[in-house]
Amino acid sequence: MLSTGLAVGVSTCACRAFSVRGMNLMSAFEALRAIPVLEALATGTVDVVALSGLGFRDAGAWQKLAGIYFGPTRHRKLQRAARSAAEGLSLDALGVVEKNTRRLLSGAAVSPWELRVELCALRGTVAEIDQAAAARVRAYNRGVEDAEKKAYGGRSLKGGKNTDAWGLRTATFTGPEHLMAAFLGDLHTKAQELRRADPRLSYEQAMFDALLAGGAGVTGPVTPVPHVVIGLPDYAKLLRQEGDETIFALTDGTTITGAELVAREMATVGVVGLYDPVSGGVNMYREERVATWKQRMLLAAETILCPHPGCTTPASQCQVHHLIAWEQGGETNIENLSMACAVHNARNDDDPNAPPRNGRLERRPGGVVHLPPDGGPTRSNIHPIRQLSAMALINN
Ligand SMILES: [Zn+2]
Question: Could you tell me the residue range of the domain that residue 270 belongs to?
Answer without folding.
Answer: 227-288
